[in-house]
Write a structure and sequence with these properties.
Elements: E1 4-7, E2 14-16, H1 19-32, E3 40-45, E4 53-57, E5 75-82
Antiparallel strand pairs: 1-5, 2-4, 3-4, 3-5
């Protein structure tokens, strides 16, 4: 089952159209910033027109308990890979 998670798109570390490039950049980011395993995420937007992959830090996720769903401030993503 896909895990759905919400982020503010402005918190993205990077946006890529190629999955392999996103994974590579996420690995490099994690190594250069000495971040623990599982804290760098490659995610894909859930909208039908989403053809890109974003990189986020897990700590930047938005909880709907803290912030009600608002398309201007948060957006749903599916986790593709954790680093």
């Amino acid at each position: 089952m896909d895990e759905l998670i919400f982020f503010n798109p402005g918190d993205s570390i990077g946006k890529f159209h190629d999955y392999n490039e996103a994974v590579s950049k996420a690995q490099i980011y994690r190594e250069h910033h000495d971040i623990e395993d599982g804290h760098v995420l490659v995610v894909k937007g859930v909208s039908d027109d989403s053809q890109s992959f974003d990189i986020f830090l897990a700590d930047n996720k938005v909880s709907h308990l803290e912030s009600p769903e608002n398309p201007d401030t948060d957006k749903p993503y599916k986790i593709s890979k954790r680093f």
